[in-house]
Structure formats: structure tokens, C-alpha cells
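Same chain as my last thread, 319 residues:
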Amino acid sequence: MSQTGDVQILDTWRNLPVDLRGAAVALGNFDGVHRGHAAVIRAAHAARPDARLAVLTFEPHPREFFRPDDPPFRLTLSGERADAMAALGVAIVYELPFDKTFSHMSAEQFVVDILHAGLGAKHLACGPDFAFGHRKGGDTGLLADRAEALGMGFTRVPAVADAGGLISASRIRRALQDGYPERAAVELGRPWAIRGIVAHGDKRGRTIGFPTANLPLGRHLEPARGVYAVVIRLPDGSVRQGAANIGRRPTVNEGPESRLEVNIFDWAGDIYGVEISVALHAFIRPEQRFSGLEELKAQIAADAVEARRILDRAGLPSP
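reply #2:
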């Protein structure tokens, strides 16, 4: 068991103490914890406001398990996901390991052994497309029937839609890959952020007057390559404006993997090895190759001015 903020994260359903059983449980992958996911979580709470609010999800995402060679696609990893859930009032996250054994569990076992016997769930809520069990043998119809037979409440929550259609993680991914973080923010209900441990880079930014903190994208989705206006949350909880580049840095040292490099405005300090969060607010320009360092420096300075203008106009950063 671990804890992030006010949320307890458990990786098992077995032998749980009384205070971690009997919750109202929202079910799903919850990648992104977008507005549709928020509706499922709120429905679980509304049905049993007397119970603790919990989410049952999986780590890794089943798609990562079944298709390990796919490019990284995650909107939120465990910590960021748990914090987004905490903001919705979630107290417990059952983050069950998705492995070969788990993938062979039948739908009936999932309901009886995990939800009923293991968690002692008082109420279940899920979206209309929730599928579970070996080869997705269980759907919301089966879940409703078995929940009723076992004395658990059940809510099937309609998908949330806006003028653009159904809100989904795949739609948010497309918006980010097309360079529209503001669209993704509307569908998420908050700006999309990459959270990670600051790694050592080649320190070239210092030599041209723009020191950067480097974050590997890891299992995160790679959004459109280029420069963004961003807000950075530092380890002490403070927030700062900045400009970030996501890409392979074709002018100075093109490498095989993209990474995020962020210049934190009006701040100096050593944050190597600590975790920060970088929220993308606006796409400024695509990644490009320059003729040399002087041209690159001039463009970085212009990018910083534009990022400040965008963030100041939006009243950012905000706690």
C-alpha cells in the first residue's frame, strides 16, 4: 500500500482491513481522468454518499500489457492519475496489477472474488463500454445482473459528450498529437501535464543563457513536437511559468528519443533527481532546425516572450 496526498493506493484486493472495504467503487482504466471519468466517479459517490469513495483500475494499462510494442500512449501515470482522482474526492485507489494471471480471470471471478468478496463493494459505477474478464467476457449487462444478485448497487453512467462528440482518452490523445493542448484541457477538465523525475542533460542550455530541466517522456504520450507555454509545479508545491520544447533538438544534438526540456522563468535552483509536473497550456511553434546557436538563441528568447504573453493573458500560473 502507498499513499499520494489523501489517497491510499493498494495493489491487492486480498485480506483488506475493514476500513478499506465497503466502498462505493468506480470501475475503469481512467487514463487521463477526463470529464467522462469524473462523471463515473461522481455517480459512485452520489449513489452511496455514506460510503468511502474508491476507484478500481489497473497498472499497467491493459493495452500496455497486450501490445507492449505500441508507442507510449498514456495520458496519466499512477501518481498523476491518483492526484486527479483525489481532486474528485476519491479516498482509495485499488490499482490492481494487470499481468498474465489477471488477464485470464473470468468475468464471474472478477465480480465474485474481487468486487464482492475482496472489496466488499457497496456500489459499483462504470461507463457504458466497460468490459472485464478474460477476453472481455463481461459487460455492463452482466455486471448489473451479478451486482444485484450479490447485493451490490450498480450504476451504468452514460458517456459524456460535447459539441465535438463523445469525450474519450483517444480523442484527447489526438488533440495533443495535433498540437491543441487547450482542446485537451477542456475535455480533461484541467491542463494536461507530464510528471517526471528531472534528469541530467547535456547542460547546453546553460551555455546559451537558457538553463533547462529535462524530463524523459517515458510511458507518456508524445504530443506534437515543438515549443509550448507551460506552467511548472515544483517539489515545494509552488508554480512557475515557463517555455518547454518537446522533441529531438535537431539543431544541437538530435537523438533517437524525444524528451521535454523546460526553461523555468525567474527561477534558479538544483532540482536534479526530484519530481516536477509540467502542464502544457499552448502550442507556440513546431520543432525546427536552425542554422546555428545564435539563431537558436534568438528564437528561444522570442519563444520565452511569447510564452510569458500567453500565460500572463490567461492569468497563469495559478495554484
